[in-house]
Amino acid sequence: MKIILILFLTITLISQGYSESLDFLLDSVSDAEIKSLSETLYKLDHNRATASELVIDPQTLISSSETGSNDDLSSQPLFKQVSSTLLSKPTYKALLDLLDNYRRVTGEAEDVPSQEVQEQDTFLQQTMNTDVGRELYNFLHSKGVYSSQSEFIQDLKMMWFGLYSRSSGKLDSSGFEHIFAGEIKGGKVSGFHNWLQFYLNEKQGLLNYYSHSFNGPWTTYPDVLGMQFEWDGYFKEVGSAIIGSSPEFDLAIYSLCYITRPGKKCYVSLGGQTLGIQTYTWDNSSYGDGKKYIASAYPATP
C-alpha cells in the first residue's frame, strides 16, 4: 500500500507539478486537525508573556462603525510595562534584530546585506529551537509536506522573507515586512500586525495608540486586540495583533494557516476559544515551483 501511495505521489509530482501535488497533500489536513494543532502550539508557547511580564492598558473601546474616525480617544500608551527579561529571550532578541531592517514606504527597493540575511537565518533557526517550532514541523512532516527540517526552514525563508513588488516594480516588500514590521502604502499604514513592533514604536514616541474596536475573550496571554493608531503621521483604521504571544508562536500560527489554508480564513483554537486567521497570497510573482509568497496574515476581528 505504501509503495502504491509513493508511486501515485511521484506521478502526481511529475504530471501536475509541485504546487498541485502540495494542494493534494494539504487536502488531507482537516479543520479539526488545524484546531487541535493550534491548541497544542498554544500550550507549548512557554515563552509567551505572563501577567507580571506584560501589562497593557486598552482604555477606550469603540464600535466597528467608528474605526475610521481618526480620533485619539486614549490618553495613555497601550503598553504600560514590558519585562526586559522577556525581551532578552532568544526568539524575542532575534525578532528585534530584524525589525529595523526595512524601508517602510512601498516603492522603495529593499537592500538586504549579508548581515540581514544572517539575522533572518538566526530568527528562523531560533524558532525551530523551540517546542512550538518543532511541533509545527513534525505535523507538516507527518503530512508529507516537508521531508526534512532544513527543507521546511528554507521554505519558510522564501515564503516570509522573499522579496516582491507592491509598487513601481521595485522589490520593496515581503510577507515578514508587511506583517511583522508594517509598511506605508497610499498614505496609510499597511500590515503591521505584531505587538512587539507596536511596543517598540510606542516606546520611541513614533506611535500613538487611539483606541481598540475588539478585545478577545482571553484573560491571559496571548490575547487579541483590534487597534486604531497613528504611526509617525500615518493612520491605521484596524490593526489587529496577537498580544503577548512569543515570536515563534506568531510565526507558527500564521505559517500553519498559510500553508494549509492559503488565501482563506483559517480557524484555530487557543485555550478553547476559536480565532479566525485571515491569510492572503501574493499572486503577482512566485518562487520555487510556482509557490506563492505570503501577502498578509492577521487575526480576523469583527
Automatic annotation (TrEMBL):
Q: Which residues form the signal peptide?
A: 1-19
**Catalytic activity line of the entry:** ribonucleotidyl-uridine-RNA = a 5'-end dephospho-uridine-RNA + a 3'-end 2',3'-cyclophospho-ribonucleotide-RNA
The chain positions of domain EndoU read 30-302
User: Where in or outside the cell?
Assistant: Secreted
Q: Please give one Gene Ontology molecular function term for this protein.
A: lyase activity
Which UniProt keywords are given for this protein, alphabetically ordered?
Endonuclease, Hydrolase, Lyase, Manganese, Metal-binding, Nuclease, RNA-binding, Secreted, Signal
Q: Which cofactor does it need?
A: Mn(2+)
Q: Name one GO cellular component term.
A: extracellular region
Primary location: secreted
Regions that span the bilayer? none
State which Enzyme Commission number(s) the record gives: 4.6.1.-
Q: Which InterPro entries match?
A: ENDOU (IPR039787), EndoU-like (IPR037227), EndoU_C (IPR018998)
Subunit architecture: Monomer.
The entry's family comment says: Belongs to the ENDOU family.
Name assigned to this protein? Uridylate-specific endoribonuclease
Q: What is the organism field in this record?
A: Sinocyclocheilus anshuiensis
